[in-house]
What does this fold into?
Amino acid sequence: MSLFSQMNVQCPSCGATQNIAAVGSVNADRRPDLRAAILDDTFQMMACEDCGTEFRLEPLFNYLEVEKGLWIAAMPGRDMPDFLEVEDRMSAVFDTSYGSGAPAAAKAIGQDLKPRVTFGWPAVKEKLVIDGLGLDDIKVEMLKMELMRRLPEVPLAPGTELRLTGGGDAALNFAWIETVGETAEQSFSVDRMLYDEVAGNEAGWAKIRARLTNGPFVDMQKLYMGEGRAA
Ligand SMILES: [Zn+2]
It folds into this structure.
């Protein structure tokens, strides 16, 4: 079941209190419209009833789509520096809901779910884009690292991230996106063959893969933040 709860927030423009429906969980098997809204950047967009200013709530919900094997804890972008703690907390939530601590029926469902943690709207959207293109999210992160080596200009910085935004059989589209403001700064396309190349070189990427998958935050940014998780 998808869950929303009423809460009061202040309009960022005029300060008037707005009573809005904030999402707590999305069940996309039953509400494909919510998946679509995440993909077209309209989910949790609000308009102030006093001044009309549009604003978006930060993501803070669980996304479940059993048919696609997706279980995502979508967190606010500003929480990313605390990813180790969030990973531990969300691993525990997954474990109780669908893992070893869950009732048998839920555990059976959980076998086909990939638990993930994302920070910010562009990141949760990207997981759905990856799914839609039939790609593997771990391999997409490896591809990004490969791209960082090849690109003449790499605007990677805290708050700016590389996200897969779409594509097709021939090419994959990426953009450098500002995590919180969600503005795309620069976009480009790469040959999809490059993904196949990275995906085919399992031995070469084994060490990186191990680091990307040492918790449910599967994102190359974890390799650049702090000490990371102790091996
Ligand atoms: Zn307002």
